[in-house]
Amino acid sequence: MAIGTQRKLWVLVTGLLCSFGFFKEFKPSEDYLNAYITAPKNASDSGLGFSNDVAYQEIYPYSTYAFLIAAFLTFPVTDAFLYKPIIVLEGFAYLSTRVLLVWGTSLHLQQLAQVTYGIASATEIAYYAYIYTVVPTDRYKQVTSYTRTTVLVSRALAGYLAQAFYSTGTFNLKELNYFSLASVTVSVLLSFLVLLILPNTNNCACNRSLKKIASDMWKDFKKFYFEQPMLFKWSLWWAFATCGVLQVGNYVQNLWKHIEELPGNEHALQNRHLYNGAVEATATICAAGAAFIISLLKVNWPVWGEFTIAIFSLVDAVLLLVASSADTLWVAYICHILYRMSYSFLITIASSQIAFNVDHGNFALIFGFNTFIALGMQSLLTFVLVDKNGPLELKVTSQFVIYSGYYYFLSLLFMFVGVYILTKRGWCMSVKNCWMDRARLEEQTSVDYTNLRLFHDSISSESTSSEENISSSDSEKELLTDY
């Protein structure tokens, strides 16, 4: 292919996919979804009239279960049947979610909306992966930067605009959903352009049966987790931490709703003193900044990584405990922003250490395995702690106490591992080697971070989104990619 033609192709692919990504993520209603679902039907905000308990016990769990099942099917199917049809499916799943949110008034229709959102979350892998199959390898860093920047800008802009629209009374909560519906409708139209205009990929996986794909994946799973202890250790934390952040993101709006309903705070909704949009947008930017700090630090993470994770996990446990007992929204808001920053910082360390311990071509596979484990644990937590049909059916504040204990357990586990490693290496020697020398730094940074970012984008999903409270899901998926 001529150089001029290649340049035109990668510009076309990048421009069209970035446009699709911007509109599918530009949903101003996301950060006020729970407020919309729980607002009275006859109120000025024209809510759906469900109680907060019904929202998190009978509606949101469906997206968690759907995400797990759809991800299990989508990851191999994407390879088997190419990327572009899956991108179209993603667009339609997002559109179906918006239609059901706007016009679906029954409990069953809202549960269906969560199912379609779980499907959309799982199919995002095709959006993030397709671009790498049709652009030259020397453009990987550029297209990664463009696609990620587009998504982050879209989410942050949607959050700040939602805050401005809501606080000033320009749009009520239902009208914010119309705004989101219009945006995802544009993304569906763009997905058809992707299908019709952009080239197909030369994907050898399409010549393999799904049975063969599953067999190969199982062999790789055993090789990674049973034969490489270092990789197993970091993957274990990655999966546990990702499960935690998804679960927290799913129900943080319900916690805010609980605080809003406490005596003395009832005026927040009536006086439009909810700052969900600004808080989520700020958390997005701060989380990205925290992840960027990692690239500036030359810490010897193989030596000090566990110790660092233990300390920050303990901080997360304290933040969640404080949020669970907060009686003002601002305390909960600040805890959420700091929690998002802490997670972004930690997941970057863990992801880099995983990358250092796998071959270049296995980044996507290992993070895929870790994601399935995280989603499986999240589904189990959802059923046991949240689901109305589960054994505990806890209140949202009690859930966050459990999540605090969850991170406290991770802190103790990695503190033990960190102390063991430092003792084995020698504390004086470990302190002396705290900062990487230039040769060590160059050796580790030779890892191809572009491919690492690619799969983290594909799983989304801050998040991040998570998923589940639909607005939370977006944040969740984003959290998984900010580094």
Written description of the protein model:
The protein is mainly α. The chain has one domain (7-200, 226-479): Up-down Bundle (Growth Hormone, Chain: A), CATH 1.20.1250.20. Helix content is 77%, strand content 1%. The chain has 20 helices and 1 strand. The chain has helices at 3-25, 33-38, 52-59, 61-80, 84-103, 107-134, 140-168, 173-197, 210-227, 229-260, 267-270, 276-296, 301-324, 329-356, 363-386, 396-425, 427-432, 438-444, 449-458, 470-479, and one strand at residues 463-465. Helix 7 packs across helix 19 and helix 12 (276-296) runs parallel beside helix 14 (329-356). The radius of gyration is 22 Å and the shape is globular. The two termini are 34 Å apart. The relative contact order is 0.15. Mean pLDDT is 81; it is low at 436-483.
Number of domains: 1
Weakly predicted, low-confidence segments: 436-483
Q: What would the average pLDDT be, to the nearest integer?
A: 81
Tally of strands: 1
Short description:
By secondary structure, this protein is mainly alpha-helical.
Describe how the helices and strands are arranged.
Elements: H1 3-25, H2 33-38, H3 52-59, H4 61-80, H5 84-103, H6 107-134, H7 140-168, H8 173-197, H9 210-227, H10 229-260, H11 267-270, H12 276-296, H13 301-324, H14 329-356, H15 363-386, H16 396-425, H17 427-432, H18 438-444, H19 449-458, E1 463-465, H20 470-479
Helix pairs in contact: 1-7, 1-8, 3-10, 4-6, 4-15, 5-6, 5-8, 6-19, 7-12, 7-19, 10-14, 10-15, 10-16, 10-20, 12-14, 13-14, 13-16, 15-19
